[in-house]
Design a protein that fits this description.
Length: 212
């Protein structure tokens, strides 16, 4: 949207001034504001990294390095390649407050609950498996995969039903997702800049847990 008139004569657009956030439902928004972790908490949040290095995702290796480098501010556990199965990922959800996916995401036209994250050996962590999970300690999920918040005419009638929403419904209070297919390089670069801001030393180690 734009350009928006400004006093200095520079052209600015809506996304230059604001960052948009979405919620699949009002109940999901209300739940995300209830509870949460105190900014005064002294323990480091643990992060689960789920990634599938693949020739079709040539920069996933760089994204893995970006996330693993966070071990100075958070405890990082990695599930890579064959170690990442639907069972191990769901179990990892229950023991980590943060999770980062770096893999392919797929939609299934006419079968929304079969949409999911592509794991090792053609296995898939489906939306249905995620929704059925109970995650009382979940806090934040970064879904660096295509289509995680995408809705198409041939896939999901209810726009509140997609992978990002499923992750939020099962307990994660905040989710970063994609509304379209993404360029491979963007996942690495976005993760680098996002986590740099999230764990900024100028805001303090616990700054990312604030809700003000």
């Amino acid at each position: 949207m734009g350009p928006i008139p400004s006093n200095d004569g520079e052209k600015r657009y809506f996304l230059d001034l604001y960052i948009c956030s979405y919620t699949p439902s009002l109940s999901a928004l209300i739940q995300s504001r209830n509870g949460g972790f105190s900014s005064k908490s002294s323990d480091r949040p643990s992060l689960l990294l789920v990634a599938q290095p693949d020739p079709s995702l040539p920069t996933v290796g760089g994204e893995i390095q970006v996330v693993r480098a966070l071990d100075t501010v958070t405890e990082v556990t990695s599930l890579l390649s064959e170690a990442a199965t639907p069972a191990t990922v769901i179990d990892g959800f229950r023991h980590h407050r943060f999770v980062h996916f770096a893999c392919h995401g797929t939609l299934e036209p006419g079968k929304p609950f079969e949409a999911g994250f592509e794991l090792h050996g053609d296995e898939r962590l489906t939306l249905l498996e995620i929704v059925r999970s109970e995650l009382p300690t979940a806090e934040f999920a970064f879904l660096s995969a295509c289509h995680t918040a995408e809705v198409t005419e041939g896939s999901v009638v209810d726009e509140g039903l997609h992978l990002a929403a499923a992750v939020q419904y099962c307990g994660f209070r905040s989710v970063v997702g994609t509304m379209w297919a993404t360029v491979d390089d963007d996942g690495r670069d976005l993760a680098k800049h996002f986590y740099k801001a999230m764990f900024s030393t100028s805001r303090g180690e616990q700054g990312m847990l604030r809700r003000d």
